[in-house]
Specification:
By secondary structure, this protein is an all-alpha fold. The protein contains 3 helices and no strands. It is globular.
């Protein structure tokens, strides 16, 4: 596992991973500026070099992971 602060993470960091877990405080319903800055920096580069349509197994794996994270956080 590798941790990067949003302002330190790069496109290379993102592309080198099989998966990413993002965390941010909710500021009146909005993500932090640091995370938005990260998205702004990597979006177009990553969008051009990654597949665009996940398959059904990919979506199911994401749902299962999300449910596991939610259940763990809920205690």
């Amino acid at each position: 596992m590798v941790r990067r602060a949003a302002l330190a993470a790069t496109t290379s960091d993102l592309l080198a991973r099989d998966g990413v877990i993002l965390g941010t405080p909710a500021n009146i319903g909005y993500m932090s500026r640091a995370l938005k800055h990260f998205f702004d920096q990597v979006f177009y580069v990553v969008n051009d070099v990654t597949p665009r349509a996940p398959g059904k197994p990919d979506l199911e794996a994401c749902r299962e992971l999300g449910a596991t994270v939610a259940a763990t956080l809920a205690g």
